[in-house]
Specification:
Helices cover 4% and strands 45% of the residues. The protein is mainly β. The longest helix has 8 residues. The chain is globular and about 55 Å long.
């Protein structure tokens, strides 16, 4: 890794937005410039990870998951600014097992229970489009998948996340009205716990705004603040830039604060926090820990073809189109 800034001691990078702004192709690799808030780092990665969005299926804790034609799901650290560009790590997971009436070719996302799949107790969760969700511990010898078929179809297109607060994997049902949780420490992990949510303090919307939101592609995201212990539900509304194009543009966003009783309260104030949404697992960052590098009470957005932010005080949107890139936010990292 080559820095444009001198780096004499470990540096905690606040977060990383991977946007392809310059690149030189050579030997099936690409030298990319990573925009890390106000820092710039250069790194060489496999070109397919940057310029071919379908080559990756998700990211968690800076590890990117790939699923290629051989059917093996791999975790790799190419896009992690703290990883070696000369010897990137490739961790193959056990061969996938497809449950009856399920599929394992299309993945919704992946989630890790700790910062590295090399940790002995780290659990990797993979949510497939449809009823199946699978778990494994890649660092353990003879690792194998625990495969679960979810009965409720409202979870078929949902994303999975790991909650450090509850020490469970959680998944939000379509529409955001129910959360399913799996505790892998018990023998009853195949039977999730369910919590119903009650939305409160909803804003009054104009007819035009409601019609616009109803016409959008909507995705729901659970995100947890490790510093405050708060859990947020974010509803992200996007619309195709023009007919026939895969690029989406943000049209609206709503943030709800969740409590242990299942209340989901609409909010315009998340305090010192900044939420990061992308193809990666969402995360929160306390802005006071990185003075001058990001804005509090904001949601940072990035996806294939779009990057920007939403100011929650008035929900104003500042976003623009970008070149095709991986569309990932990488959470805070210690840079040696």
């Amino acid at each position: 890794m080559v820095s444009q800034l001198p780096c004499c001691k470990p540096l905690l990078v606040p977060s990383l937005t991977l946007i392809l702004v310059e690149g030189v192709w050579k030997n099936s690799s690409l030298t990319i410039i990573m925009n890390i808030i106000s820092l710039i780092w250069k790194k060489k990665v496999a070109m397919e990870l940057v310029d071919i969005p379908m080559a990756t299926i998700g990211s968690s804790h800076g590890w990117v998951a790939t699923l290629k034609e051989d059917g093996i799901l791999r975790l790799q650290d190419d896009l992690n600014p703290n990883a070696s560009y000369t010897e990137p790590k490739r961790i193959p997971l056990p061969p996938l097992v497809t449950l009856p009436h399920c599929q394992t070719q299309i993945v919704t996302n992946v989630s890790l229970s700790s910062s590295s799949p090399e940790d002995e107790d780290c659990v990797v969760a993979v949510k497939f489009l449809g009823p199946q969700i699978s778990f494994c511990r890649p660092a353990q010898s003879n690792s194998e998948w625990i495969n679960i078929r979810i009965a409720n179809p409202c979870f078929y297109s949902s994303r999975v996340m790991f909650s450090e607060k509850y020490e469970m994997f959680r998944i939000l049902g379509s529409g955001g009205h129910i959360i399913g949780s799996w505790d892998l420490h018990t023998d009853k992990h195949k039977n999730p716990n369910f919590q119903r949510l009650r939305f409160q303090n909803l804003p009054k919307l104009t007819k035009t705004k409601r019609e616009l939101m109803d016409s959008c592609y909507k995705s729901e995201h659970l995100v947890e603040s490790r510093t405050t212990g708060e859990t947020f539900l974010v509803k992200w509304y996007r619309k195709a830039v023009c007919r026939g194009m895969s690029k989406l543009k943000t049209k609206a966003l709503m943030v709800f604060k969740l409590d242990d009783k299942g209340n989901a309260v609409y909010t315009q104030d998340i305090g010192d926090l900044c939420i990061f949404l992308s193809k990666s697992e969402p995360f929160c960052v306390p802005v006071s820990s990185f003075p001058g590098m990001m804005l509090p009470n904001h949601v940072q957005l990035t996806d294939v073809g779009e990057t920007g932010f939403v100011k929650l005080a008035d929900y104003s949107i500042f976003a623009h189109n970008t070149r095709i890139g991986p569309g990932y936010h990488i959470p805070p990292q210690n840079i040696e």
